[in-house]
Amino acid sequence: MARSTARKRALNTLYEADEKGQEVLSLLAERLLRPGAQTPLPDYAIDLVRGVAEHLHTIDGALDAHSTGWKLNRMAVVDRNILRIATWEIVFNPDVPDRVAIDEALSLAKSFSDSDAPGFIHGLLSAVSADKEQTLITESEQAESEQAESEQADSGNAESEQAESDSAESFETENNPTLAPEQEAHIESVPFETSTSDSAANAPLQPEPEVSRDDDTRQNV
């Protein structure tokens, strides 16, 4: 009985999110934070809502693959979410026998949907149950593919960043050339040469020769 109540509460949350077009986990967080007049959600109801949200792509894919005549987006909102709850239990919760999950879904359909819903839901969930191993394989392959794509994207980003770094270093080198160590050593070993004019300008002054009196006498003769 406790799990039957939890399924009803989970259906209520999933139905409301679907009707509003709101993200399921966002609405669940609101319900957990502010339960309002309702009693807190049972733990199993939380497990159901989170499980459906986590595997929604796989669940909807399995239902669409086995549905004849009605695709998931054309089904009544209540039927669609009853099917989602039961499919999660069948495929992803080994603690619940498939027969129990289907019977509980039929009980919800009789309480909340029209008279045609139980027969349709029974046939569709029976097909999902028969093919659940393939559904798990499909999800695993999809997860591996997404991981490979993510790793490839990360690798591409790293290569792009390295190329940008190399380009920046090359640009800096071209615009700010530096001498190799042997060039610097050669420059330091070259002696400093001065020009002739500089040498002459820096030479010490020579004293003028003294003129003797005899020289003056000769000049006056």
UniProtKB/TrEMBL annotation:
Coiled coil: none annotated. The keyword Transcription regulation applies. GO terms for biological process: DNA-templated transcription termination; transcription antitermination. Residues 141-152, 161-172 have a biased composition (Acidic residues). Residues 210-221 have a biased composition (Basic and acidic residues). Keywords: RNA-binding, Transcription, Transcription antitermination, Transcription regulation. Pfam families: NusB. GO terms for molecular function: RNA binding. Residues 5-128 form the NusB/RsmB/TIM44 domain. NCBIfam families: nusB (TIGR01951). Involved in transcription antitermination. Required for transcription of ribosomal RNA (rRNA) genes. Binds specifically to the boxA antiterminator sequence of the ribosomal RNA (rrn) operons. This is Transcription antitermination protein NusB.
